[in-house]
Amino acid sequence: MNTQNAKKHPYVGMWITKDGYIRHELLPNGRYDEARGNRKSAYQGQYTIVGDHIEYVDDTGFTADGDFRDSVLYHAGMVLYREK
């Protein structure tokens, strides 16, 4: 996914855990911003999506990945849903 296509990509937007504790925003510029509880921007970095797979590299160099299945994001042991 390149930056030009990101604005139209169906996975761009806010993803949240069922309890709302983790809020994971995929920005259209290929960056993400993850809030945890009251801590806004707890993690930030870049992401790349290929098909239904997402790869993350946060600004400290930590890497993670996840998969989108049936409108759900499975990421690092978490289950996130599209914010309505």
What does this structure look like?
Keywords: Plasmid. Pfam families: Atu4866. With 84 residues, the chain is mainly beta. The chain has one domain: Uncharacterised protein family Atu4866 (Lipocalin, Beta Barrel), CATH 2.40.128. The protein is 5% helix and 60% strand. It is built from 1 helix and 8 strands, in the order αββββββββ. It has an 8-stranded antiparallel beta barrel. It is globular, with a radius of gyration of 12 Å. The N terminus is likely disordered.
Brief overview:
InterPro entries: Atu4866-like_sf, Uncharacterised_Atu4866. Keywords: Plasmid. The chain is mainly beta and 84 residues long.
- The SSE string, one letter per element, is HEEEEEEEE
Runs with pLDDT <50, length 5+?
Answer: 1-6
Termini separation comes to 24 Å
Biggest sheet: strand arrangement: 1-2-3-4-5-6-7-8
Residues in helix, %: under 10%
CATH fold-level name: Lipocalin
Q: What is the level-2 CATH architecture name?
A: Beta Barrel
Keywords: Plasmid
InterPro entries: Atu4866-like_sf (IPR038646), Uncharacterised_Atu4866 (IPR020955)
Pfam families: Atu4866 (PF11512)
